[in-house]
Design goal:
It is a single chain. The protein contains 14 helices and no strands. By secondary structure, it is mostly helical. The protein has 2 domains: about 70 residues; about 200 residues, no CATH class. The longest helix has about 35 residues. Pfam families: PAP2_3 (PF14378). Its main location: membrane. It is a multi-pass membrane protein. Keywords: Membrane, Transmembrane, Transmembrane helix.
């Protein structure tokens, strides 16, 4: 029995609705974007590293982080809205750090004399008649024949340009409140250090040595980076940059940032994390002193600045939180600190 024309029409699939078709195409496009987000990001990053070496400059590091956060946002399905949130929170941070970098370069031209005598005297006393930079290089450094610990030292030194920013990016994704707290500590510590550079310009050991005030020493990290063959790997040490400031040695922010991370995370860290937090500041300190980048006193002052900044900021945040709770208690008619309904 043949189906009638009416029955044939009923059995034929209905033509897709245009609105539904557009929605399906949009979903397929979004799915493709989610799959491509990370491959595109890592492809661009690999191209940059192949052409220019490791991204160490603040602006490039921030661009890499922003790109990673945008890729993570697209991959998770947040799309344009998530990407705009990334730009909203991170472009101002990038601007603040860029302004610091610019001011740091201008800070090399201060009306005050550059100091080296107090740092040299303190380090000579601590070294029993010779600075620890000289002693460590006499014992450990072999020009032209780097050892494993030299390469490890380069990795520790270069972590200064990545670790705190990556940590901020992870907190931004997982705990926005903690992100704001660490960011406040980082910015405050950075600008307090900058103010000290202006008021107390200080020579590092390698520059003190070049001026003939102490025995010859080598900038170990620079030496290894320049001989690595990696494109532009050593350019962070080039002179003449508007961001360069060879007399920004007191305090050592290279030493201060690891200490800031240690005091920031210590209360909530588990035992393995505390081992890393406790090891990072002395490891960085060793590299800075051994590599002739800072005197010991620069490192100790950097640690003190980090602890002091976080202590002051933590007290401020606690006081503000207590004030907010008191106001909330007054609004609800409950005594301050007493749970509602108790």
């Amino acid at each position: 029995m043949l189906a009638s024309p009416c029955m044939t029409d009923l059995l034929r699939p209905a033509p897709p609705d245009k609105k539904t078709d557009r929605a399906l195409r949009a979903r397929r496009g979004a799915a493709r974007l989610r799959l491509l987000a990370w491959p595109v990001y890592f492809g661009v990053l690999a191209w940059y590293v192949d052409e220019n070496g490791l991204p160490y400059a603040n602006d490039v590091v921030f661009c890499c982080l922003i790109g990673a956060l945008v890729a993570a946002s697209v991959h998770s399905g947040r799309g344009l809205r998530g990407s705009l949130l990334v730009l909203r929170d991170w472009v101002p941070v990038m601007a603040v750090v860029w302004v610091y970098s610019l001011l740091r370069g201008y800070g090399a031209h201060t009306p005050w004399p550059v100091r080296f005598e107090p740092q040299l005297s303190i380090d000579t006393f601590l070294g029993g008649g010779e600075t620890w930079t000289v002693r460590l290089q006499e014992w450990l450094y072999h020009p032209g024949r780097p050892r494993w610990y030299d390469y490890a030292g380069v990795a520790v030194y270069m972590s200064h340009f990545f670790v705190i920013f990556v940590t901020l990016a992870v907190l931004w994704r997982r705990d926005h409140g903690r992100f704001r707290q660490l960011l406040a500590g980082y910015v405050l510590l950075t600008y307090v250090g900058f103010a000290t550079y202006i008021l107390y310009p200080a020579d590092p050991p390698w520059l003190t040595s070049l001026q003939g005030h102490m025995p010859d020493v080598t900038r170990v990290v620079q030496d290894l980076l320049n001989s690595s063959g990696m494109p532009r790997a050593g350019s962070i040490f080039e002179n003449g940059s508007q961001f360069a400031n060879d007399v920004a040695a007191m305090p050592s922010l290279h030493a201060a940032y690891p200490m800031l991370l240690a005091v920031f995370f210590w209360r909530t860290a588990n035992r393995p994390a505390r081992v890393l937090l406790a090891a990072y500041p002395p490891a960085m300190a060793f590299v800075l002193v051994y590599g002739a980048e800072h005197f010991i006193i620069d490192v100790l002052v950097g640690w003190a600045y980090a602890a002091g900044v976080w202590y002051a900021l933590d007290r401020f945040l606690r006081a503000r939180r207590a004030k907010r709770e008191r106001r909330a208690g007054e609004t609800s008619g409950e005594p301050a600190g007493k749970p509602a309904g108790a």
